[in-house]
Specification:
With 354 residues, this protein is α/β, with parallel strands linked by helices. Helix content is 44%, strand content 20%. One of its GO terms (molecular function) is GTP binding. InterPro entries: Tubulin/FtsZ_GTPase_sf (IPR036525), Tubulin_CS (IPR017975), Tubulin_FtsZ_GTPase (IPR003008).
């Protein structure tokens, strides 16, 4: 089975990796803030790296880059110690913050240079549309940087807006926990199938590795069906599992690679027909398995970037940019002046000291 390891950067990346550790994945975390690392009680101290000299980045991406440059040798040793045996390394971070946003490109490039034969993929949280202007600026800049790294593999972009809409009755932490665990569960289920015999066509480790190695946005989803479900309904549910997924992509019609796993308790649907006719991936890996449940899991990679989301962030920034610049300039330069100095006139001439 493929060995997949996770490296979390910043608070959000660290929390995601703590869940990955609970799901039995090798997980390590690094942060500029010791307080965030202390909160990750599920991860062993040896697998936490505090970039000393910093106590958070204050949402400043340049502080994070400075911290990376100051500790690059330490980060390299940290990754080499704990991730050398992995086939796939997934770097997790939030694009709207400081530490993860500022370091994601640098860490991804470092890992690509260190491990040229491994797949380096990313799992990135996008900020909500109602978050601060600074968060959106950070996300735009970080996404521009990481999307330019050509040696990386699949990029999973998680929409915080979709996560919130899906679990709006729950506290924020639980929303992200459920969404992250759903992704990790689907990933583990996909890995397991490479050890099983398929009644249609086997899916091996190299098939999944090849799919994950494809550059561009990626989507992982699953849905249940019952024995009476016909092919058209299965195709509709498959498209819905993509449309309402927390993972964001540009277009679902342009796909480089796809892995389709069909599980059934008895009558297995014809695998070749479950894929909607409009979907024609360049490479397709399919498998059908007798299981205790009726479920279909899909992994799509090599998909277009979500330009629409980034443009909305940029429109919000450009709309308020001048007003914010004016306000900040005023606050950082304004002063109150007076031509009266009463205390000097009323001060006693005789000076006394203790």
């Amino acid at each position: 089975m493929l060995r997949i390891g996770f490296m979390g950067i910043g608070q959000a990346g660290g929390r995601f990796c703590q869940l990955a550790k609970a799901a039995r994945y090798q997980s390590i975390v690094l942060n500029t803030a010791q307080v965030d690392l202390d909160g990750l009680t599920g991860i062993e101290p040896i697998k936490k790296l505090h970039l000393k000299g910093y106590e958070g980045a204050g949402k400043d991406r340049f502080v994070a880059k400075e911290a990376f440059d100051a500790h690059v040798a330490q980060i390299r040793h940290f990754a080499s110690t704990h991730l050398s045996d992995m086939h796939v390394i997934c770097v997790a971070a939030a694009l709207g913050g400081g530490t993860g946003s500022g370091m994601i490109r640098e860490v991804a490039k470092l890992l690509c240079d260190m491990f040229p034969s491994k797949v380096i993929m990313t799992f990135l949280f996008l900020p909500m549309q109602d978050e601060s202007l600074k968060n959106k600026m950070n996300a735009i800049e970080a996404f521009s940087e990481i999307s330019a790294v050509e040696d990386t593999g699949a990029m999973f972009l998680a929409s915080s807006d979709v996560i919130k809409d899906r679990h709006r009755n729950l506290p924020l932490y639980e929303q992200y926990t459920l969404a992250s665990m759903a992704f990790l569960s689907d990933l583990y289920s996909l890995q397991q199938k490479t050890k099983m015999q398929s009644v249609y066509s086997n899916i091996d480790d190299m098939d999944v590795l090849t799919a994950l190695s494809e550059r561009g946005c990626a989507m992982l989803s699953s849905f249940a069906y019952d024995d009476a479900t016909d092919t058209n309904t299965i195709q509709s549910r498959m498209e819905a599992s993509w449309r309402y997924n927390m993972l964001q992509v540009g277009e679902t019609t342009e796909i480089a690679k796809a892995v389709i796993v069909v599980e059934a308790t008895s009558d297995i649907p014809e695998v070749a027909k479950v894929l909607p006719p409009s979907i024609k991936p360049y490479e397709l890996y399919q498998g059908a398995f007798v299981s205790g449940s009726n479920k279909i899991t899909t992994l799509l990679t090599g998909m277009a970037l979500p330009y629409g989301i980034m443009r909305r962030y940029q429109e919000d920034v450009e709309q308020e940019e001048k007003q914010v610049e004016k306000m900040l300039h005023k606050r950082r330069t304004e002063r109150y002046e007076t031509d009266k100095i009463w205390t000097e006139q009323m001060r006693r001439k005789r000076s006394i000291r203790v």
